[in-house]
Amino acid sequence: MVLGLLQVYNALSINELAKKSEKLREQIRLNNSMITTQKLTADELQSIHNIEQEALLLGLEASHEPPIEIERTIEP
């Protein structure tokens, strides 16, 4: 009788631990996804910074004028 109760208790404990484990795995997947997104953003910002530094070395500066849109016409 006691052995049967222990087996039931152990089975329930294993099921509960499996649920907790799956929740933790999902949190890890989410965190890894967020970290990857942050790394991509950091890489993009670093790239923009590098381009800006190279432009400054070449004597180029950012324009304070708004960009001009050029209309492209297709001739027949």
Q: Output the number of helix runs.
A: 1
DSSP strand tally:
0
Instruction: List SSEs in N-to-C order.
Output: H
Distance between the termini: 93 Å
Main pleated-sheet profile: none
Helix/strand/pairing class, anyone?
mainly alpha
Radius of gyration: 29 Å
The average pLDDT value, as a whole number, equals 92
- pLDDT under 50 segments (min length 5)? none
Global morphology: elongated
Q: How large a portion of the residues is in β-strands, by DSSP E?
A: under 5%
Q: What portion of residues is helical?
A: over 70%
Structure, explained:
The chain is mostly helical. Helices cover 74% and strands 0% of the residues. The protein contains one helix and no strands. The longest helix has 56 residues, at 2-57. The mean pLDDT is 92.
Describe, in short, the structure shown:
The protein is mostly helical and 76 residues long. It has one helix at residues 2-57.
Features:
76 residues, 74% helix
Helix-strand layout with pairing:
Elements: H1 2-57
